[in-house]
Sequence to fold (441 residues):
Amino acid sequence: LNCSSCLAQTNSEVKKLSDDERMAWWRDSKFGMFIHWGVYSIPGGERDGKICGGGAEWIMDKLDYTIEEYEKFPAMFNPVKFNADEWVSMAKDAGMKYIVITSKHHDGFSLWDSKVSDYDIMDSSPFKRDVIKELSEACKKQGIIFCFYHSIVDWHHPQAQGNLFPNYNAGQKDQTVVNPEFPKYYENYLKPQVKELLTNYGDIGVVWFDGDWIADYTTEMGKEFYDFIREIQPNTIINNRVDKGRKGMEGMDAEGNFAGDFGTPEQEIPATGIDSDWESCMTMNGSWGYKPSDKKWKSSKRLTQNLIDIVSKGGNFLLNIGPDGLGQFPPESVERLKAMGVWTRENGESIYGASASPYDKPEWGRYTAKDGFIYAHVFDWPEDGKLVINRTIKPRQATLLSDPYTKLKTKLIDGNLTIHLPEKAPNNIATVIKIKLMPND
Ligand code: JFZ
Fold:
């Protein structure tokens, strides 16, 4: 996978790609890193001994800060441990191909040098380093596609939700109240900010919007915003939350005419594949933003099997990290990234560029497919050593992906292809069996 060429990054003249060409790098990539980082990473979900429910990036709303009270966090934001190259290496070593960082979350604080705002890292924090610049450059250097998440909701801006915060729209307490000034925020602040991000940081892989649910934001704005972005960077991919087409909490595309290139199911994996492009985003514990009180970490095994499950259904996996207020990934996250890297290094052939399973989901695991091969991902090792593929086919050959020289015996039993496996599972997360099909199967 050569990601630097997919966006025509090195060409001074931007080629306009067809939709399939434009989506190609993203469809092949399968695995990306979400990063929720901002001044909310300082309190980490806790205020005076009280812990906020849900995602810690919502603390301003959930624990009832006034704007003034919350502004002490930008003044404290000095993440001296932040090292863009290290972050990008950790993503890359895990097998991730792109990074989506929160340029601005709902709290309104901007992580880059924004000329249309003083509520940014250059003017309101002692750190005074353009984090987006450092990360985008580190990504380019290491061949990772740089992308950003951007909140339409803004609890700080007086023309958005800031004027009446915390009683206005925050926490989705009242989604029907609109700020009559909101179109000005949209035109003179939101759009110029996104334009800065699309102009000053090289090629942007994905713009990942969020906050589309507020009543202030209209489907007309959504469609216009989509075109506005494509006008600046024609090959950028934009998620469905740019418009109001999501089907409620499922996060999938609704019927009708809505802008957006892919669906965004959140914290869940759909039961079956979906016709359109989609990406499941997920946390490793229960919070997007840094929340040390949340110890409910998903295991590396579960997270890796989630990746396989998602790829077997034709989707992408965007796995979240919530770095702390000093700029460090939590050790639990680092450990999981490393374990996933061990698995993807050995088995990545069955993941990157693979397509959804052409067969029904088996009881013992998942299938992916690529270039005339079927990859059987075995989660539950059969006790009798016989892996049953529910097809009447005689393959050309079957091996362990990790050991191509040992051929596995295959046989048709009761009309099903049956593969004889070694006694013990070579990989306790998922062992991949590589099956070469006959040309017409
Ligand atoms: C949003 C944010 O509020 C949250 O803080 C985080 O950034 C997450 C990735 O996105 O939360 C949502 C958005 C959409 C749904 C649920 C939570 N949804 O569609 O189910």
